[in-house]
Write a structure and sequence with these properties.
The protein is α/β, with parallel strands linked by helices and 294 residues long. 39% of the residues lie in helices and 13% in strands. The protein has helices at residues 22-31, 47-50, 73-76, 97-102, 108-115, 146-163, 184-199, 221-237, 243-246, 256-268, 278-293; strands spanning 11-15, 35-40, 63-67, 85-88, 168-172, 204-208, 213-214, 254-255, 274-276. Helix 1 (22-31) links the parallel strand 1 (11-15) and strand 2 (35-40). Helix 1 (22-31) packs across helix 10, helix 6 runs parallel beside helix 7 (184-199) and helix 10 crosses helix 11. It is globular.
Length: 294
């Protein structure tokens, strides 16, 4: 099987390619002369919202920006044709319960109680979904939950990847949760990993688990990354004993394009499969960087 070093030109479909990680992901894809399709609800991104410039970067012309809805598989299934690998780079960090609080429709107490609820509904079973059936929130108000976006949309995409006979699937997961986030943020990601692994054994599934992501194009992430870096150093001095308390705040933060380079490297290396933690992410990115220097 071809490795990342000698692989022929490949077509990579990145669902969520105009998001924080997905957009930098285009840079290493282009450097490897791969073709990339990027389906999202908006199609080509508004560049001022994802970069420091309102102008489209030169590499964006190498990407086929397509409109599709991750909750409606029929909209993205045609885009998977002839793909060599699929990446799920979508998810939510916070649910929308705070909107009811801000608009006065819900009290602060009830809003927080709902946000930190131990259980919420996702969609109907994504493994038993009919071919032409979209994923529908089972919450009474149709809320977009962790279960729906972080778990069920990934399972549905992995299922369609298998049905399309595409051999490789990468899921952007997370190293850990955080004290300020509901526990369901990370448990739904772990549920997605477990279900994809067990339900699609023939699929080379790769689960990328970065900690906090930062990039200069998102100014607010820079000071947070600095604080996280200090916390990660303190955690390492204790042998990682504080990870249970600090969550992702106790894990080394990573630059978004470093993670993106690691994703592309992993897709091209047949030996990489399963969970990819922070240390391996850094090693994969270093391999990609060294190859680019040759």
């Amino acid at each position: 099987m071809a490795s990342a070093a000698n692989a022929a030109k490949k077509r990579i479909v990145v669902c969520g390619g105009n998001g924080f990680l997905g957009t930098p992901n285009t840079i290493p894809v282009k450097s490897k002369n791969n073709l990339k399709s990027s389906p999202s609800r908006s199609g080509e991104p508004t560049w001022s919202s994802v970069s420091s410039s309102s102008n489209a970067p030169s590499w964006s012309t190498s990407v086929s920006w397509q409109k599709a809805d991750i909750l409606k598989p029929t909209t993205y299934t045609p885009l998977l044709k002839d793909a060599d690998a699929v990446v799920h780079s979508m998810g939510i960090l916070l649910e929308a319960d705070y909107k009811g609080v801000l608009t006065g429709k819900e009290s602060i107490v009830s809003g927080l109680q709902r946000a930190f609820s131990a259980t919420k509904q996702g969609s109907q079973n994504p493994l038993e979904r009919k071919e032409d059936e979209g994923l529908e929130s089972q919450e009474k108000d149709g809320q977009i939950t962790y279960e729906l976006m972080n778990r069920d949309s990934a399972i549905a995409l992995a299922r369609q990847t298998t049905l399309s006979q595409i051999p490789t699937f990468a899921y952007i997961s997370a190293a850990a949760g955080a004290p300020i986030l509901p526990q369901r943020y990370i448990t739904t990601k772990r549920d997605a990993e477990t279900t994809i692994s067990s339900s699609f054994p023939s699929l080379r599934s790769i689960f990328i688990r970065p900690g906090f992501l930062y990039d200069s194009s998102r100014i607010f992430t820079m000071p947070l990354a600095a604080l996280t870096g200090v916390a990660a150093m303190a955690n390492s001095m204790t042998g990682g004993r504080l990870t249970w308390l600090m969550g992702a705040g106790g894990i080394t933060p990573l630059k978004a394009d470093l993670v993106a380079a690691a994703v592309v490297e992993a897709l091209g290396d047949e030996k990489v499969r399963g969970v990819v933690e922070t240390g391996e992410i850094e090693m994969l990115a270093t391999k990609a960087w060294r190859r680019g220097m040759l």
